[in-house]
Structures are given as structure tokens and as C-alpha cells.
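Continuing the series of single-chain predictions for the mutant panel. This is the parent chain; the variants come on the following pages.
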Amino acid sequence: MSLIVIPDDAPPVLARSDAVAQLRDYEHRIYPTLPANSSELAARIAAAEAVINIRASTRFTAEVFDACPQLRLISIWGTGTDHVDLAAAKARGIAVTNTPAVSAVAVAEHAIALMFAVARQTVNIDRAVKAGEWPRAMVQQLHGKTLGVIGTGAIGREVARLGAGIGMDVIAWSFNQRGSYAWVTFEDLFRRADVASVHVRQSPETMAMIRAKHFAMMKPGAIFINTARGRIVVEKDLVEALRSERLAGAGLDVFETEPLPADSPLRLLPNVVLTPHAAGITREATEAGLAMAIGNVLAFKAGTPMHVVS
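Parent structure:
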């Protein structure tokens, strides 16, 4: 394998990790900035046989592949593949791998943390106390409430387990219904859930699948959590549901546009807790995921590719 390129280690995670030592004996190049455009990405990886992709904002299109005839593998750090043209990769004989389930615990813990932060109004109360106030907010408890899990992959299953562990009644909907959950229809989940938490992948099938009619079905005072992908939800419909206080609040780690634009109305809503697409970024999950992403490259080099998506 002539060259392994990491075109988008920005902010740096791989370069500062313990996992990078696995590349010590291989020719590799790490770029500490994001490529400005597809032409710059193609220039960075033009000589590469394998690419380790760090940031989902780096888009691998058919045009990029056309400019990189030596490319044979894209190893994604993470599970999402919506930034890679999988059909174009397959047509050109480029394998795509990811790191499934490695961040499941981290993302699930973050989803539960957002639930608590919204239900207990933690952020607003913290600000008030720091400002010299002594508020007595009437907050919600989660024990005894119904948690609706949308998607029961590795993350959704962990969220369901943690939710049950704090005394929530768990109901679930998924494209593939495996496991002993209280399965409900998509619409019934929104009608019944006190907290609805999204854990499906972004795909043509899931884009904008949650919109105004679903928020209208939810109980007054319900909470909406999204740690999956922003474009699964029609963001303007969610904003309206929050502005009208149809929903008690939302905890969001993902957005239609990232980073979140300065003029986003979500920034001004007091009943929303926002985090910067960071649910899976714990030291433990990061090291394990980077090691797996590198391991996928080395396995490919040995002729036994692992965790192949396409």
C-alpha cells in the first residue's frame, strides 16, 4: 500500500491519539485542516490507495473518485455514510468501511444526559443561580415516563437499556424489528412517548421523516431528543413546536446545517439544550473508533477487509 492519507483531521484527533502509533510502519500523511472544497480533497488524496476519513463534512463524490484512480479504500471513523457516494464508490471498485457500534455507549449516555438536562431544566437553572437567583422551577422526573426509541441499532438498544434502568417504560419502532421490545407503529410512538429519541441512520428513506404532523401527535409537555442526524427532522417544524411550547423542550446534538448557523432560531429558544455533534466523542470511544478505522485499513492491506459498508 503506497500511501495512506488522512485528509481532514481537523480539529486534530487522530494525530493526538494513541491509535496513530499503528501507522508508524506505513507511509501516511495527515492533514490538520479541512479541505476547502472537493478539488482540494481530490488533490490531497490523489496518490492515496487508502483514506481514513475523520470528518463527515468531507464529502466523497463521484467527481472526487474520478480524480483519484489509485484509491481503493475509504475507512470512515464513525458509522454514518451519508457523505460518501456509495454507488459511485462501488462502481469504481472502492471499498468503504466504518466503525460500527464503537460509540454506541457514548452516544446513548449523551442522549440520556440530554433527556435529564431538558427535563430538569439544568442549563437554565444553572444560569439563574450563577446570576444570583435562587429559582424553584417545577421540573419533570423521568422515572415512570414512557421513552420512545426510534431505531433499535446498537445505539438505540443501549438507550433503551439505560432508559429502562432509570425506571422508564420503553416502547420502540424500527425498520428491522429484532429483540423483545414493546413494538409500536411510528405514529403511535409519537402519541405515547413522553420522550422521543431518534437513533436511525440518515438515508433517502429517513430524510425529513419526522415533521410537523409527528410533533402535533406528541403529548403536551413531551421532550424530543436527536443524536442521530439533523436532516432526519424537518428543523423548521421542530422550531415551531418548541416556540409554541407544544413540546416542553428538545435536546439536540445534530442539525440540518453544521456548524449551527449564527442566525439559527434554535439558539434563541430557552427550552432547547444544544451540543455540537459531539455525542460520541469520549476519550474511550474516540480511541477505540480510531483504532478500528486504522485496523480496517491494515486488514484491507492484508486482504481481509473488516466492517465493509460497500
